[in-house]
Design brief:
Layout (H helix, E strand, L loop, with lengths): L5 H25 L18 E4 L4 H8 L2 H6 L2 E5 L2 E6 L3 H17 L3 E12 L2 E11 L15 E6 L4 H11 L11 E10 L5 E9 L3 E3 L15 E3 L7 E4 L7 H8 L8 E3 L17 E5 H4 L11 E5 H12 L14
Helix pairs in contact: 4-8
Length: 335
C-alpha cells in the first residue's frame, strides 16, 4: 500500500525537530542550573513526532531506502507500527558517536563494533542503534546472520531523555536480536549556553541491574544485609553529569523521577561541585565489566573492564558543538 504525502510529512517532521532544538537552546540559555529536586517539570510527551502510522516492517524498510528520507536528513525508527522522527544528523552527534565506537574497538579486537545497526525488537518495531557491539565469532557467521549485540550506545542531541529512557524496554527484550544485550549507554549532549558552556549526561542501564544496598547506610542496618540489590533494568544504574555546566532543573528532575537510587546521579550537578576538567577524574569514568560484553566467557588478554573516560567524550563534543549546522547522516566514517 503506497504512502501518501511523504514529502509533506517529512518536511513537517524536520521543522518540528528544528523547533525542538531551538526550544532546548532557549531553556539552556535561560534556566538556572542549580537544582536537582524532583519537582514536576514540563513533560516531554509532546516531543513525539509521528510521521506515519500503521506501517509494516516490509514497507518501513522500503521507506528507509527512498530518496525523500535521505534528502530530509532525519533519523527515524519504527515503534509499534509508527514511524517516529527523533533526531537530526549533526557534527556533534557524528563525532561523539565515532569517538565512542573507536574506544570500543581499541579496547578489544575481540569485538565486532557496528555503527547504525538496524535492530528488530519485535512488536512491529525496528531501531537504528548508533553503536552496537558483539563478540567476534570464530569461524565467522554464515550469510544471513543477524548481529546480537551485548552493548548498545545511543548519542542524542535533539532526542529527548524520555525517548532515550523508553528504549530500555526493547533493548533488554527477549527478542532474537536483543536477548544477549547486557549494557545500554545513552549520551545526551545539551545545547550551548550563553557563557559557551554545555551540560552533558551519560546514563548507564544494565540488563541485570544491581546497585549498592541503601540499607547499609542506615544507622542500624538489618543483620547480614546483601551488599547489592536488584532493581528494574528500566531504571538507570548510574547517571553522570559531565559537561562544563551543571544540569538544569528539567533533566535533573527527569533522572530523579526514574527512581534512580540515591547517590547514583553524580557529577557536575551544582555550581559548587567539582566539574569534569581533566582526564582520569574518578567521578567521570564509566566502568563496564568485560564479562557483560563477553557473556560466553572473556577472551584471554581482554582487560577486566571497558572504561570510558567522559573527559574524552566531553572534549570531542565541545570540538563540534560550536556550530548548530546539521550534516548528513553519513558524516562520520565507519570504524
Amino acid at each position: 500500500m503506497p504512502i501518501s504525502n511523504i514529502k509533506e510529512n517529512l518536511e513537517l517532521a524536520r521543522n518540528r525537530l528544528l523547533e525542538l532544538d531551538k526550544e532546548d537552546s532557549i531553556i539552556e540559555e535561560s534556566t538556572p542550573a542549580e537544582s536537582t529536586t524532583t519537582e514536576n517539570t514540563m513533560t516531554e510527551g509532546s516531543r513525539k513526532i509521528v510521521i506515519f502510522s500503521g506501517m509494516s516492517f516490509k514497507r518501513y524498510r522500503k521507506f528507509c531506502r527512498e530518496e525523500e528520507l535521505k534528502r530530509f536528513k532525519i533519523y527515524v525508527r519504527l515503534v509499534k507500527g509508527e514511524v517516529i522522527a527523533y533526531e537530526m544528523p549533526s557534527s556533534v552527534h557524528a563525532f561523539v558517536t565515532q569517538k565512542l565506537a573507536s574506544k570500543l574497538e581499541n579496547w578489544s579486537n575481540q569485538l565486532n563494533v557496528l555503527c547504525e545497526l538496524d535492530i528488530t525488537t519485535g512488536n512491529n518495531s525496528e531501531y537504528c542503534a548508533d553503536i552496537a557491539a558483539e563478540p567476534t565469532q570464530i569461524p565467522p557467521p554464515a550469510p544471513g546472520y543477524v548481529p546480537q549485540p551485548t552493548i548498545i550506545i545511543e548519542v542524542a542531541k535533539t532526542e529527548s531523555l524520555t525517548s532515550l529512557n523508553d528504549l530500555t524496554v526493547d533493548y533488554f527484550s527477549a527478542s532474537a536480536q536483543t536477548n544477549r544485550t547486557q549494557v545500554y549507554l545513552a549520551i545526551k549532549i545539551f545545547n550551548r549556553r550563553q557563557d559557551s558552556t554545555a551540560a552533558m549526561l551519560a546514563i548507564l542501564y544494565l540488563c541485570n541491574n544491581q546497585v549498592p544496598n541503601p540499607a547499609l547506610n542506615n544507622p542500624n542496618p538489618p543483620p547480614n544485609p546483601p551488599a547489592m540489590i536488584a532493581i528494574a533494568n528500566t531504571i538507570p544504574n548510574l547517571a553522570v553529569s559531565f559537561g562544563s555546566a551543571p544540569l538544569n532543573s528539567q533533566p535533573a528532575a527527569f533522572i530523579n523521577n526514574t527512581d534512580i537510587s540515591n547517590g547514583r546521579l553524580i557529577g557536575f550537578l551544582q555550581r559548587t561541585d567539582i566539574a569534569c576538567t581533566a582526564a582520569n577524574m574518578p567521578n567521570y569514568q564509566i566502568t563496564i565489566p568485560a564479562n557483560l560484553l563477553f557473556p560466553g566467557g572473556v577472551p584471554v588478554g581482554v582487560p577486566n573492564n571497558f572504561v570510558i573516560d567522559l573527559w574524552d567524550v566531553q572534549q570531542k563534543a565541545f570540538d563540534n558543538i560550536k556550530s548548530s549546522r546539521y550534516s548528513p547522516k553519513s558524516a562520520f566514517a565507519l570504524i
